[in-house]
Amino acid sequence: MTIQTGVLIETLHALGAKVRWCSCNIFSTQDHVAAGIAKAGTATVFAWKGETLPEYWWCTEQMMTVPGADGCDQLVDDGGDATLLVHKGKELEAKFAKDGSLPDPASTTNAEFKCVLQACMEGFQVVTIEEVVGEVDIFTSATGNFKIITLDHMKKMKNNAIVCNIGHFDNEIAMEDLENFPGIKVENIKPQVDRFVFPDGHGVIVLASGRLVNLGCATGHPSFVMSCSFTNQVLAQLDILENCTKAKNYKNDVYLLPKKLDEKVAALHLPALGASLTKLSKEQAEYIGVKPEGPFKMDHYRY
């Protein structure tokens, strides 16, 4: 629950929605925003847990305008905010997705071959964690998988290496194994910054207890980045409204928004970045076969 989330909720309210809110990160809620949303009458709820979908769902996290803009560029800034340190050494980003980058000099380890090729062509060093575990200053996991940074890795890291996560869950870093390691000592430096000291005397600094570092140690993504993500969510909500009485349109499943909508979101945000594009004429669009994709039928989804 950040200011940007509050704006999303206000937007949905303005469109006539009744909104319920649930948060997933225990460190990220901004109390003043939560208080304002509660005062406006928004109910708080818990997450829905289970395998059964009572209705169909739109998944907006896979849209290009979400991970494409919602990347990892600010990670070093977030770590700096949390530790008050300036790092000019190597950083390692463990990632499996298509999004995100780190300032040079950096190393990346990636499981998608086409992304590995792209990283290499952009000048990044592609390595395994094991190859550089004793050299790197900042380790960041961003995979959506689990036990990416293991206890064995952390035992081999240099003293005061910083470990953080910007993936989906706190188990990308093997926090349970680290916390239960015999003889481990924990020094709380400040909120969301803990130094885990091994029996041999060397320690690693873990940010936000392995949870999302941009939320736990900063204030989330910049408003423009969240605007891209939340615009996808609002348009998905509009489609749910349009089709909620037409059950035959969707089965109880999770759907990706069509590429055409992703492009619409990108087009809406380009002017704010000073981009100027030539609009295709009707003949040019027909020549290259541009057609509305869909199940989106409402005119305001077309451009």
TrEMBL record:
<dbReference type="InterPro" id="IPR015878">
    <property type="entry name" value="Ado_hCys_hydrolase_NAD-bd"/>
</dbReference>
<dbReference type="InterPro" id="IPR000043">
    <property type="entry name" value="Adenosylhomocysteinase-like"/>
</dbReference>
<dbReference type="GO" id="GO:0016787">
    <property type="term" value="F:hydrolase activity"/>
</dbReference>
<keyword id="KW-0520">NAD</keyword>
<protein>
    <submittedName>
        <fullName>Adenosylhomocysteinase (S-adenosyl-L-homocysteine hydrolase) (AdoHcyase)</fullName>
    </submittedName>
</protein>
<dbReference type="InterPro" id="IPR036291">
    <property type="entry name" value="NAD(P)-bd_dom_sf"/>
</dbReference>
<dbReference type="InterPro" id="IPR042172">
    <property type="entry name" value="Adenosylhomocyst_ase-like_sf"/>
</dbReference>
<feature type="domain" description="S-adenosyl-L-homocysteine hydrolase NAD binding">
    <location>
        <begin position="25"/>
        <end position="220"/>
    </location>
</feature>
<keyword id="KW-0554">One-carbon metabolism</keyword>
<dbReference type="InterPro" id="IPR020082">
    <property type="entry name" value="S-Ado-L-homoCys_hydrolase_CS"/>
</dbReference>
<comment type="similarity">
    <text>Belongs to the adenosylhomocysteinase family.</text>
</comment>
<dbReference type="Pfam" id="PF05221">
    <property type="entry name" value="AdoHcyase"/>
</dbReference>
<dbReference type="Pfam" id="PF00670">
    <property type="entry name" value="AdoHcyase_NAD"/>
</dbReference>
<keyword id="KW-0378">Hydrolase</keyword>
